[in-house]
């Protein structure tokens, strides 16, 4: 009765609107070529902003409020630096010399500024707003166990449906991407994404989530129940659940191999390793010092196995062109270490840095390393803050996954910790976190996972004890 009254209250109505709006965006964002067009960026930004506003009244514990406040401060610093970069004469010592050269050549009187652009790139602003709003929406939903379970349910099935479509398209229409001709990455599975590396990251995240679900179901079975599986009808539903979840996980893994992405395969393996270690350590109550040997052994096995598969076996882990791009980007960062070259300016400036060490084929509109591109555009201090925040988010997820005894929370936290590991590692060697169709999904899941992690900590830690006197 109380739950029904809450659902009829204004706060309950806003929470429902936020939940279903966020779910719609999460499910549809990867559909339209990864939503790379400015039109879809604007659509999802509007919907997620509306959803975030609906979640303003969501109750949070102290740690959740503190983390969300820290996230907003980090976003504020990023936005402030981006604005300072385009203000004329903001820091004259750091003004881009391109403005003086342009004035001299064309006889203009344009005011110099730090950025090589006179305004912030709409694409850069859109990516920033998408991640900020998707994280806030996911975080608000994660404060409720019931809503977070619904979100994860839709996420897991959207992953597998995109994978099934990708496999069908790979077999039946290999030269088509949705309803258009496939220009690049023919012979590789890309699902609804243009780039096979982004598709690999997306599919790998789905594989991690489904493997955790399958493993969680299998953990509830003891050897005695397995022997009696055919004699008790009560075990049939559990056995069917294990089979279906395992099939979904293996389907995602098979699709991952067909993407032909070296980084996607290796980073997905690392993410899956993290998730499985968290599931095993928590279930078997292994001592904490077992984690490092398990991780090192798993890492070695993944590297050995990946080295014998696909493009890694034939072409190695990384190509020379990408290494050259990294080297040239680092040189540019050394010239502008503090406030960078301006938000969204990498595709404008890199052609001037390009040399003969890089193949003449193709356009490098990304640095193929998100953190390196952030340092290029926003400066080393901002890049360092973002890297620290990323590491902190993984630590919070790991700590909560190890500490919780609730199976549903454990598998969600382990899966999102694995997905975060995959995404962060892959972002160091590619640009999957700069594709709207993936960054929305990742931002929502990361926000939801961190909110659940802090809810778990509050239920079992000192925060719960601190709140108890106020409840009496």
Account of the 3D structure:
- The chain has one domain.
- The protein is built from 20 helices and two strands.
- The chain has helices at 2-8, 10-28, 38-54, 62-86, 97-106, 122-142, 145-172, 196-219, 223-227, 234-259, 262-284, 291-306, 310-315, 320-335, 346-353, 370-378, 380-403, 407-427, 436-460, 462-471, and strands at 176-177, 180-181.
- A two-stranded antiparallel ribbon has the order 1-2.
- The longest helix is centred in the middle third of the chain and has 28 residues, at 145-172.
- The model is unreliable at 4-8 and 462-472 (pLDDT under 50).
Strand order of the largest sheet: 1-2
| Major sheet description | 2 strands, antiparallel
Radius of gyration: 24 Å
Assembly state of the chains shown:
single chain
| N/C terminus separation | 23 Å
H/E topology pattern: HHHHHHHEEHHHHHHHHHHHHH
Write the layout of secondary structure elements.
Blueprint: H1 2-8, H2 10-28, H3 38-54, H4 62-86, H5 97-106, H6 122-142, H7 145-172, E1 176-177, E2 180-181, H8 196-219, H9 223-227, H10 234-259, H11 262-284, H12 291-306, H13 310-315, H14 320-335, H15 346-353, H16 370-378, H17 380-403, H18 407-427, H19 436-460, H20 462-471
In short:
By secondary structure, this protein is mainly α.
